[in-house]
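User: Teach me something about this protein's shape.
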Amino acid sequence: MTKDKVILLMIGNSRLHWALFNNNSLINLWDTPHLSEKINQNFINNCFPENLDFSELLQQNIIINLASVVPNQLIFWQDYPQLNLINLQDIPLKNLYSTMGIDRALALWGCVNKYGFPCLIIDGGTALTLTGINQNQELIGGAIFPGLNLQQKALSLYTANLPTITFSKFLPPRWALNTPDAIASGIIYTVLAGISDFIDHWVTQFPQSFIVITGGDRQFLFEALAKYNPNFEGKIIEDSNLIFWGMKHLNLPKMM
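Assistant: First, the predicted structure itself:
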């Protein structure tokens, strides 16, 4: 590895999300589970791609730029010597509030740098979020609600007879004749209706806005929204790496 390489680490609600950049080129992406102890040889051996020699990274003190939505995961990285911890105040957008999720703010900054502004970000992760920024790079606001899998897990956990389901890549029948399809219908069509309403309201205020969908459920939501509302087809961008582009475009120090 060379000095031009940098590791980006986004600690999400359910996994660690990694990217390797060489200058401005994204050359590797991967995910690993949350840590339960400080980084060690076992972690290095089992959790990194074969084409990435993490032992070499440790020896050369390659910089890791890290952001996290899970504070208790940060303790496992406190001894790494070349760590840039990204905070909300590092993101040069206006009107960010102090408790805003770093992932939402980074996705906005990534969108601003890759596509432009105004923009609306739909993040289909563990929590499903919508976040909008205007032409002056000011946060307008957003919304947070449970993501698809979180909703179905809540039904299974807090009811006596409703099963855990797996969502198909196809839209379920709206009027279902069995319990799994009824759960899928209730969750998916409610989510699509909610997102559609937010998009419609947003574009009345910002008709020239970019609309970008990201997160783990992005592909399903991207395709489902076009089927649910044909007017959205060709108007929504799918991008899995907005947060990483946001991290990459920050003016961070070379080391702590």
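Now, about its shape. The mean pLDDT is 89. Strands lie at 5-11, 16-22, 25-32, 64-68, 83-85, 119-124, 127-133, 139-146, 210-214, 237-238. If you'd like, I can walk through any region in more detail.
User: That's plenty for now, thanks!
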